[in-house]
Write a structure and sequence with these properties.
The complex is a heterodimer. Chain A is mainly beta. Helices cover 0% and strands 57% of the residues of chain A. Chain A has no helices and 11 strands. In chain A, strands 2, 4, 5, 6, 9, 10 and 11 form a 7-stranded mixed sheet that branches. In chain A, strands 1-3-8-7 form a 4-stranded antiparallel sheet, with no helix packed on it. In chain B, strands 2, 4, 5, 9, 10 and 11 form a 6-stranded mixed sheet that branches. A 5-stranded antiparallel sheet of chain B has the order 1-3-8-7-6, with no helix packed on it. The chains are: A mainly beta, B mainly beta. At the A-B interface, β4, β5, β9 and β10 of A face β4, β5, β9 and β10 of B.
């Protein structure tokens, strides 16, 4: 399958600082990328859909000014957690997808464990 | 919002036994996919079943889909300790964007 690289895998930051997470599709062009958040022992919650060259579409309840998404190219989307607080500590996962044969094929990054202290 | 409900939430069995996990969803779908997640890692795609299919096999995996009941099951036969992970179903809604919506997941533990 295709490869999606997510970086960093772990980050610890101080309250009030911003953290940027990168998601790259290494061997295919992803017109759409998705950002998920996962709390311990829970499922993935979709945060936003990132479309190349346009504004991201945020799910209900997700603060767009808090979680800035940029999808500047067909292979890179970034999620910036601004003014991070301890409650933002979580596991963030990106996926890159494309439609093929009438279904969505999604490939996931390895996730980023964010800890805000 | 998450539309999938999975049961059981946690399942612990002995190595060699079969493990069955169930998933229910709410809206019409194009297809349903099952993913596996090892602790603290990304997701690995296991199998996809289209809305016009009823059963699909891949190695030790067997997936069924009942669109009338809006439910799916994942059966892992002859389980191994390495199968210990969380398993999620995800649906690709018929309408709207190409996003996947995940169920709550089943944490499977295989005891050696």
């Amino acid at each position: 399958g295709a490869v999606v690289s997510q970086h960093p895998s772990r980050v610890i930051c101080k309250s009030g600082t911003s953290v940027k997470i990168e998601c790259r599709s290494l061997d295919f062009q992803a017109t759409t990328m998705f950002w998920y958040r996962q709390f311990p022992k829970q499922s993935l919650m979709l945060m936003a859909t990132s479309n190349e060259g346009s504004k991201a579409t945020y799910e209900q309840g997700v603060e767009k000014d808090k979680f800035l998404i940029n999808h500047a190219s067909l292979t890179l989307s970034t999620l910036t957690v601004t003014s991070a607080h301890p409650e933002d500590s979580s596991f963030y996962i990106c996926s890159a997808s494309f439609r093929t044969g009438g279904y969505t094929e999604a490939f996931f990054g390895q996730g980023t464990r964010l800890t805000v202290v | 919002s998450q539309q999938g409900e999975e049961d059981p939430q946690a399942l612990s069995i002995q190595e060699g036994e079969n493990a069955t996990m169930n998933c229910s969803y709410k809206t019409s779908i194009n297809n349903l996919q099952w993913y596996r997640q090892n602790s603290g890692r990304g997701l690995v795609h296991l199998i996809l079943i289209r809305s016009n299919e009823r059963e699909k096999h891949s190695g030790r995996l067997r997936v069924t889909l009942d669109t009338s009941k809006k439910s799916s099951s994942l059966l892992i036969t002859a389980s191994r300790a390495a199968d210990t992970a969380s398993y999620f179903c995800a649906t690709d809604a018929r309408q709207g964007a190409q996003k996947l919506v995940f169920g709550q997941g089943t944490r499977l533990t295989i005891n050696p």
